[in-house]
Amino acid sequence: MALVVEQLLNGVQLGFVLFLMAAGLTLVFGVMGLINLAHGSLYMIGAFAAATVARESGSFALALVAAAVAAAAVGAVIEIVVMRRLYARDHLEQVLATFALILVLSEGTRLLFGSFPLYLNVPPALAGSVELPGGIVYSRYRLFLIAVGLAVALGLHLLIRHTRLGVRIRAGSNDREMIAALGVDISLLYTAVFAIGAALAGLAGALLGTLQSVQVGMGEPVLILAFVVVVIGGIGSIRGAFVAAILVGVTDTMGAFALPGAFEWLFGSREAAVIGTVLASMLVYVLMALVLIVRPSGLYGVARS
After folding, report:
1. Which residues of 227-265 are buried (b: 16+ CB within 10 A; e: fewer)?
2. Which of 92, 206, 223, 252 could link 67 by a cystine bridge, Cβ 3.0 to 4.6 Å?
3. Rounded to two decimals, what is the model's pTM?
4. Does residue 305 lie in a domain region?
5. Contact predicate 280/255, CB 8 Å
6. Is residue 139 part of a domain?
7. CB count in 10 Å sphere of residue 272
8. CATH code assigned at 252
9. In-domain check, residue 251
10. Range of the domain at 260
11. How many domains does the chain fold into?
């Protein structure tokens, strides 16, 4: 039972990190109508910025700030230089352009940092484990990830619901022509939204960079799961992204934990365990298909005519 609870917590932790990625994606698509395949590259940039600053300064807190700032700055430049030319284009052209950005950013990162991976260590204050109620021993750093995810989710809720910028973001997602007619600078709003989404992706890269090596191309696997989260939660819905991220994180983690052993126990062979592992890797996509069958616009999405 302790192992099951530990895996559930791991799933929740993964869900909160996925939320950081998916929130940026759903903001950009909901407000700007833009499909951004390069979002995973911003995750990678945040991880590299954090690893570099942590190595030079020895401060993990400063590394997290650097990751968010670096990704936001790169995101703002990308929006001004590239994305503004894509808003009136169809989604196919957006996909092609942002795929090209993946190649440019990947090779640029490789040129700056080399082909060898960097490593971002867990700070001493967050190393080790803590004992939770029920005698469950769990990683202190993973609890920190859950706390950061909760804080960011609360901060986004307050931003979207209780600030002037949030009012403009919500209005822009519903009727961008009207708020432009009311005197809102749409270009500045779009740059701000894109930079916020990029900062969240960069922060996610820094947080997960301690659990894996920091290397070129590390953002694409996380981006795929983030797209699944956006589709399940409903495009443009922050609440949907939050709920779906937890569902996807728990489903992915518990599937990988339970299915191989269950298949081996049921069929009595190691080959059955391999089949269970393969099926576990498909679970999140099965979940997405089931949600779309019942609610084609996602859990909290608004059906579009």
Report:
1. bbbbbbbbbbbbebbbbbbbbbbbbbbbbbbebbebbbe
2. 206
3. 0.90
4. no
5. yes
6. yes
7. 17
8. 1.10.3470
9. yes
10. 2-294
11. 1
As given in the structure block, the two tokens for residue 237 are: 């819905």
Rounded to the nearest 10 degrees, how much is the dihedral formed by the CA atoms of 111, 117, 118, 119? Answer: 170
pLDDT tens by residue, 44-62: 999 999 999 999 998 999 9
Closest by CA to 153, choosing from 46, 27, 239, is 239
Length of the chain: 305
Q: Is residue 299 part of a domain?
A: no
* 123 CB-near residues (< 8 Å, 6+ apart): 60
Contact 257, 7 (CB under 8 A): yes
Phi first, then psi, for residue 132 (nearest 5°) are -95, 165
Neighbour-count burial of 115, counting CB atoms closer than 10 A to its CB (0-12 exposed, 13-18 middle, 19+ buried): exposed
pLDDT tens profile 106-125: 999 999 888 888 888 888 88
Kindly report the number of other CB atoms within 10 A of residue 92's CB atom. Answer: 9
